[in-house]
Amino acid sequence: MKSVISKWLIFSALLIAVVVAGFYFHLQQHKKTFKIGLLHSLTGTMAASEKPLIDAAMLAIEEINAKGGVLGLPIEAVIADGQSNDAFFAQQAERLITQEKVYALFGCWTSACRKAVKPIVEKHQHILFYPLQYEGLEQSPNIVYTGLSPSQQLIPATAWALKNLGKRFYLLGSDYIFPRAANMIVKEFLTFQGGQVLKERYLPLGNTNMQDVISEIRELKPDVILNTINGDSNNAFFKAFVEAGFSANKLPVISLSLAEVELAQMPVIPVGHYAAWSYFQSLDTQRNREFVQHFKQRFGAERVIDDPMEATYLGIYLWAQAVESAKTASPEKINQYIIRQSLNAPHGIVSVDRFTRHLWRDVKIAQIQPDKQFKIVWHSDLNFRPEPFPLWHSHKEWETQLMALTR
Amino acid sequence: MWKRSIKNELLLAFILFALIPIAVIGQFIYTSVYNAHISNVLDNLSKIADKKVEQINIYSAERLNDAKLLSSSPSIANDMEQLQRVYYQQGSHSKQYKELEKNSRYFYQNMLEIGGYYDVFLISAQGDIIFTMRHEADFGTNLRTGVYKNSELARIFNNASQLLSADFSSYRYYEPSKEDAAFVAAPIVKNQRVIGVVALQVNSSVFQNVVQDNMSLGDTSETVVARIEGQQGYFLFPLKFKAPQIKNNFIDLNAKIGLPILHALNGENSASASIDYRGHPVIASWRYIPSTQMGIVVKVDMEEALANFSKIQWLQSLFLLSIFICIGLTGIHLRRGLLVPIDKLMFTVNKIANGDLNQRVQIKSQNEIGQLGLAFNAMVDKLQQARDTLESEVQERTLNLKTVNDLLTEQILKREKISKQLKQTMAFQQAILNSNNFSIISTNIEGTIVSFNAAAEKMLGYQADELVNQKSPAIFHDADEVAARAKKLTQELGRVIEPGFEVFVAKTDQGADENEWSYIRKDGSRFPVWLSVTNILNDQNEKIGYVGIASDITERKRLLDELQLAYNAIEHTSEGIVIANSDGLISSVNPAYTRIMGYERHEVIGKNPNFSKSGRHDSAFYQAMWDKIRTSDCWEGEIWDRRKDGSVFPKWLNINAIKNSEGKVVHYVGIFMDISQQKATEEKLERLAFYDPLTHLPNRVLFRERLNQELLAVNRNKCQAALFFIDLDRFKWVNDNLGHDIGDDLLIAVAARISAEIRESDSACRLGGDEFTVILANLTQTDKIAEIAQTIINRLGTVFEIKGHQVSIGGSIGIAVAPQDGENFDTLTKHADMAMYEAKNAGRGTYRFYQPT
Questions:
Q1: Which residues of B touch A387 (CB under 8 A)?
Q2: What are the tens digits of pLDDT across the range B65-76?
Q3: What is the rounded distance in angstroms from the CA atom of residue B720 to the CA atom of residue B707?
């Protein structure tokens, strides 16, 4: 009798334990993940610039997952290769949304690429986080622009140069939409502010023949060069520029598309020249030191971080925060919740502007150092309101001008 | 140490299945409800915070739009140019400026009132404030170089003029207005030149209303707005609660990590349970407002937020507690009803086991344990009772023995004295009374039984004490019998005799009255007695009582009955019975004898039984019969006898010699049955076995017997015998076409015709169907054979007249003659058969002798 009761007790307890364990494992098995698409060029001419953005995104994803993910589920990255081809980017965006059923897209580098993907995300009422500083003049209900807008980089940098480096500007850029649109704005701005544009010069992408440019600069003798060259051409330009004997003291170059990643690959270091970004790896704050340390631990001590990478990184965090507060990851809902987000990013506080879907950001002007890092020489006190459309023209007017430019 | 007992098992079960689950479920429910409640409060707070941020955003965006609109109107550019020209050429105190200002003032006053602004500024590109509505201390100062160059107004002026942006400033103390203020500014552009900036000062009360509308969140709810001021946080509006660490609305940014407002100022955007600036537990939601670089916290005290929850929590605790109490009570009830009784039972049982039989289990319930206790008590009762009885018996015995001993001693002395006197008197009486076979019952004159002897006791089964002093007729008399006797005596004596004691004594004065009576034993069985009642007279010859002496006549009556039965059996049996005396002369016969033999009883008494002999048996037969009787006292066998009418018949007779106890034969009893019917049946059976039932001719079996006999005779007597095989022609046709009845009748007729042609000593046989044979026996000469055969053929060829049908058949005969044609049965029949086929082949209606080939 006694032993029967005892056995029965043990049996019951075991049974309950087995049922509970079974139920727990059942729940575990049915756990899903939040898929997000990382859409960048892993091959082609843009690969060198874009690959690090994938790393930055992965760092954010891994950090978030290590803290328990979002809404208790891990984030899963689906990486797609845009192959440096705008049309293919659009195709991949379509695939990620309709087939992979990702909850958000993080991607694109060039404005051309963004403009190719934009109709896809808008068609699906989806959401794209675009991490690059760009020419502005755009606003989409389905894109979050985490990079710098013209009011935060182009105009403050030009104003700073005008005030500190001289009035006579030589505008040098690669021959595609961003440099041309940026220079269109800069030209008007300089006019308002009493500056002078000596010449606009555009080099084909990948061009390395700098002889004409050097001789033109030598001839025009500008006070400052506003550089919007993208990619490998920067290497050639600065090499030729330095070799031609121009020093930063006499003719400073302020670059809008040159950051630590590009600098690291340069054969000749253009010491003393300037760049304008929100984020620099050398930023000496607790938050940034941790960020840099994490990144190097994860991807190697030789690796560097730049503003577009940080913009990608903080974009993932903004999205995760929006999912947490919306309690869902549906892109439709996240498009509503993303405009309420702000956070303390490695470069400082960022907030999504509810009207423009761009970030409130600050801007810093920094000088290139021999160690291929930047030294900050000036920074805005506060975050600048994002103004994708400089307010001296109406949106309509800007769009018309931009159309004329691309035609 | 864990001891395995029911108590411990129950305790373990209670903990496992009640305590732990309730604790776990309780904790689970509590946590779930708590989390749900907190998350609900957090959601509400977050919605409110979002709403406020949205309101501020929209408010600032509207102000910004006002500034943008104002700056882009052509009239303001004209105003700006004219005012600048007059301001710089004539000064702000000039008549021309005052005039211009007056015109402008009218326009901007509307603007102030509609937009809810505090002031309007027109600032030249160089930074000089050349126009305000209020003319505060800032008027006329330069925002780039003047005293207010670090004000928010100066900052947004610079942004507007240098970056061509429109901006909303953060909300700070503005010295000229002596209060907190925010500004919105936009550049005025004309002819691709920035000619100045227009700025609007926002009315602080409007902004404050937006921020501090608490929307009835609760008594302790508060919305706190702060911005960073150097290394400190600055609360923009007075706080609801006092806190020692807050001085002049400033809070050290490094003071308390984790304060919601510090999170908000750090750009974070979240909600959770937290601690507020007082150090008080709160639930808070915080946001960073980029447009004004402020942090906003919407919070409510934890106590208030949990007020509703406390009620739920209290109810839940009550619920869990009541479940726990219920289970606990069940446990206690179980303990009371099960464990305590078991313990008590164990305790008592142990005591009993140790020998204390006075212990009893206390029964408190009728359940199984109660039953067990009862059973235990009953067992102990029995034990104790047994022990007590034993003890008292021993005691009583001892006492008794002593008393008896004393009495005995006394009595012995008395006895010895009396006994001598009594001995002689008793001797005679005792002799009578001791009679074993007579019940002697004496009564007094009234009929009361005085004595009842041993034989009476034995006979009736009553003890003497049971009946002495009883009034007779006592219970061992049949009341009906007494009543019947009373009736009879009344008639006989001519006076009324009551059915009572008088019945027995009515006639005793004439001497002993003897009658048959029934006595009834104590066990209810009856038996007949022969009762003799006589008067008892005293020495004065006076009647002092009666004595009834009864003898059991059961056996006598039984013998009489048996005799009657035997007599009846003999009288009514169907078998004839003859009883002869030792001399063999008939002394008695029964009615069956008369019926079978026809003689009356008086005709045969005194005769020798052989008077009716049939004469079929010789004297030797009778001699053997009597020899058998003498040696074994009985004989049995079939014997033929003759009836009175002279007919002879067979009977089965059984004779027994009856001897007396000395072994001398006293009677012979003959019992017989008429078996003539039986004999007839036997003959019929024999006929069926050997004769053809249709034609009554010998069948195949008898044919074989007869032929074999004949062949033996042939061999023995050296004579001859002939065998005919006769086959009928066309018999089959008759049978098939005229029917079996005609066929059968034809066969009978054929048999008759064949039989008629042969001698008595010859045999005609039918072997079956239309196969007939004839055996001609004991022939000394063979010349007659052919003649007989031809005669038979002729007879068979003659037309038969059967049931109106003229039937014409014929016959063929095969002949074999023994011994020349065969000396044994098989050979002879085979040859006769072969000869018959010869005859048939020769054209029917003829005969053939067997011809050896």
A1: 165
A2: 999 999 988 889
A3: 12
